[in-house]
Structure formats: C-alpha cells, structure tokens
Amino acid sequence: MREPEGAAGWHARPVRPRLPWSSEPVRPAEVAEALTRAMLSPKTMLEDARYNKIVANRFLIEVDPENHAQRYALIEPRLLAQWREGLLEALSTANSRQGRREFRFGGRVSLELRVSEDLAPGQARVLARIEPDPPGEAAPGYRLESVPQGEGWPLRTGIVTIGREPACEVHLVDRTVQEKRLVSGQHAYLQCDEGQVWLFDGTPAGQPSTNGTYVNGDRVPAGGRQLRDGDLIVLAALDPDDPRPDTPGAAALRFLAADETADGSV
C-alpha cells in the first residue's frame, strides 16, 4: 500500500530542482547523490544520549513512468545494489572524517524503486526515514574474536570496518598493533547481509591496505572472500607468502558463526 508523503516519518525531496530550461531526465547517478544527501540530512537524523547521529535506513525512490521504463526498469536489481553500496560507503566516509563512529543507521538498509504518476516527466524523488529492525533481526549471529586475546565483536548487518582508527567498528587497540602500524587505519571491512559475510581488503571506498588481508593463509582477492565458521583472518604480513598471526604488529581474528539448536537457542 502506498504511503502518503510526510506520513510515518517520511521526508521527501526531489532529486534535483525542476528547471524550465532542462529537459534531461534524472539519471541513476543523480539518484545516488540524492540518497546520500537524504541520509545525512539533519531533517532525517535523530541523536541519542551519547550524541551519536542515527540516520535514515529506509529509502523509496520514485520515478515518473516514462523515465522508469527507459532508464531504470531493465537494470533495477543492479541499481538497487549500487545505491545501497553507495550509502554504506558514504556513512563509512562520514565516520572516518569525524574520527569516530558518530553516524549509525537506524536499522537494516533497504531501498525500493517504484513508479509515481504524480511526477513531472523526467523527474524523480527520494523519500527517507528511520525504520528500526523488527525484534530478533538486528544481529545475524556472527562475531569476530581476536587471537589469542579472545576479545569479541558481535557483527550486525551492513558494512563493518576493521582497523587501528577509532572510527572503525572493530577497533584494534592492542598496543603492539598501534605502535608497529603494520595494520592500516582502516585495513579491511566486512559486508554482512542475507545470511552471508564477505571480507574485503582496504576501505569501502576502494583504498587497499598497506600490508594485505589474509584468510587461512590466502590473500583476500579484490572481489572479496566469503567467510566460513572458524576462518582465521590475518591483517598485515611482512612476507605475503607466509602471513603469520604471531608477527609483532599484525592482527589475527577468528570468524565465528553461531550454530542454532533445534529449539532456537545458541
């Protein structure tokens, strides 16, 4: 059922102003920019008791029928995936600039593309709001543990950054790691979604780490690597052919996937 503009916390904005001298239809790249602006707009944010900014995580993209048929319909799944990835990267970049994890999604990121008959030809509109996850869906049941210290980080859906910088969700505070600086500030990141966890080297924006990321002795390729329960992750190697978890200044993490019993307990 279609919800009216302004209802249930929706904030709407045109992708770009309607200019009388411009007849060029709104392109998907312009929608990507408008999504980032809507996510980081003060109108869609809430602030918690620790001054963290909670940003919109639910987005509707509305396009006029003709433009939708010509530019969007045939590649809709691809566009939705690219727009979602862009939002995750934009949030990570905003946190990096602040030096801490100041901005947080209000729940799992979701996007929907639909036709709107009330838009002028060639126009598009983005609607955004905070929509918390239903109870029981916030945590996928995965975690990282440092080796051998055993410090743990429960994982949530979306992008999870790993590195020496305080802005990283998995912030590596080990004294040797911080002093040796073999591990990059933002060294690697996880993409947790749809029952899968993928590990990527470098930052979500595409900057590779200085000394590489490895899983079970193999270097993580540019396209990432899907993690399995018990995988050993090594961040930074002096010898790429022999990534050692005990190298001073390197970091070792164990990926753990919770196994559920028949009664639903963990």
A few lines on this structure:
With 266 residues, this protein is of the alpha+beta class. The protein is built from four helices and 18 strands.
Keywords for this entry:
single chain, alpha+beta, 5-stranded mixed β-sheet, 4 helices, disordered C terminus
| Relative helix content | 10-25%
Which structural category fits the helices and strands?
A: alpha+beta
Overall geometric form? elongated
Query: How much is the average pLDDT?
Result: 84
Largest sheet: 6 strands, antiparallel
**Alpha-carbon distance between the termini?**
37 Å
Strands ordered across the widest β-sheet: 9-8-18-17-14-15
Q: Given the structure, what is the number of helices?
A: 4
What is the number of strand segments? 18
* Cα-atom radius of gyration: 21 Å
Sheet-strand content, in percent, reads 25-35%
How do the SSEs run, as a string of H and E?
Answer: EHEEEHHEEEEEEEHEEEEEEE
Runs in which pLDDT lies below 50 for 5 or more consecutive residues are 260-266
